[in-house]
Amino acid sequence: MKKYTELFPIWLPTVLVILLIGTIGVSIVGDYGITTDEPMEIDMVQWNIDLIKEGKPLPEDLSFYGPFFNTIAEIIFRITKTLSPSLRDGSFHNNSKKLLLKKIKVKHYSTFLFSILAYFTVAKLAGPLCGKNSIWLAPVILAFLPRFWGHSFFNPKDIPFATMFIVCTFVAALLLRNLSINNNSESEKRDTFLVKEIIAFAIAVGILTGIRVGGFFLIFYLLATHLFIEYPKLKFKFFQEYKNFYKLLIATWQITTTVCYPSIWYAPIVIFMLASSYFGKDTWFGNFLATHPSLQLKK
């Protein structure tokens, strides 16, 4: 009797699981209503256009959030408005509630469909950890995380950021694996392949930064992990060996971030320093398991 893997491709269960997740999500995304910050997220696109054209400053908090995903959602809305008669009807001035609700409907679908990328990437990350026959479990587990699943229908900040963070992690893992492989016989071919991966990682981190400025920290995570892997072997030769690698990475990331994030055009260094302080103030107000009142010893 033939094995299952001989009858069907190894990736088929994973694709079917993600298709099921997508089908369920698309069927219920319309049931989600408007959240408090969605009008501001929609207006952010025009505010950034005003910043570019007229130099009008953004509201303080929005300086730390790039308009990348909101701009993509706005473009999708404009395309669907052109194609769909139902979206062309009615008043379309900036303060129209009807326009706002239609934009939010398209934005919710855009947010959920963008989150599907996370399921595919998590499956790819899970392959080396749990084996190819079990990778279909990874998207299932991700879908059962209530905050990710629930927010994927309406959250235009955290879900795109989380999705791109997973993508960046996957590309970084590939990059670090290939950097640690010594293949002198095909060094030119290897270098060409590495350059492509470096550029892919830098663009992904640039987009991540274009969603939320704190995404640039991933570059330091990559460097720290790379040092941990290679420094014991190379010592101080590490910096000589990989200096061009990091020059290309930083240059590509800087170009991508500049395109995706207009706020940094006016204060490219200061904005990152302020962002570190701003996001460092976020606090978790819940209870950790070890500090929950029910677990405290009675005096």
What is the rounded distance between the termini?
66 Å
Mean pLDDT: 81
Number of helices: 13
Question: Which spans of ≥5 residues are poorly predicted at pLDDT below 50?
Answer: 89-95
Largest sheet: none
Shape: globular
Strand content: under 5%
Q: Kindly state the percentage of residues in helix.
A: 55-70%
The ordered string of helix (H) and strand (E) elements is: HHHHHHHHHHHHH
**What is the alpha-carbon Rg in Å?**
22 Å
Q: In the residues, how many domains can be counted? A: 2
> What oligomeric assembly is this protein in?
single chain
Classify the secondary structure makeup into a structural class: mainly alpha
What's the β-strand tally?
Answer: 0
Label this structure with key terms.
13 helices, 299 residues, single chain
Q: What is the secondary structure topology, with strand pairs?
A:
Layout: H1 4-7, H2 12-28, H3 38-54, H4 68-83, H5 85-88, H6 97-130, H7 137-143, H8 146-151, H9 158-179, H10 187-211, H11 217-234, H12 237-260, H13 270-279
Helix pairs in contact: 2-6, 2-7, 4-6, 6-7, 6-9, 9-10, 9-11, 10-12
Concise account of the structure shown:
This protein has helices at 4-7, 12-28, 38-54, 68-83, 85-88, 97-130, 137-143, 146-151, 158-179, 187-211, 217-234, 237-260, 270-279. It is an all-alpha fold and 299 residues long.
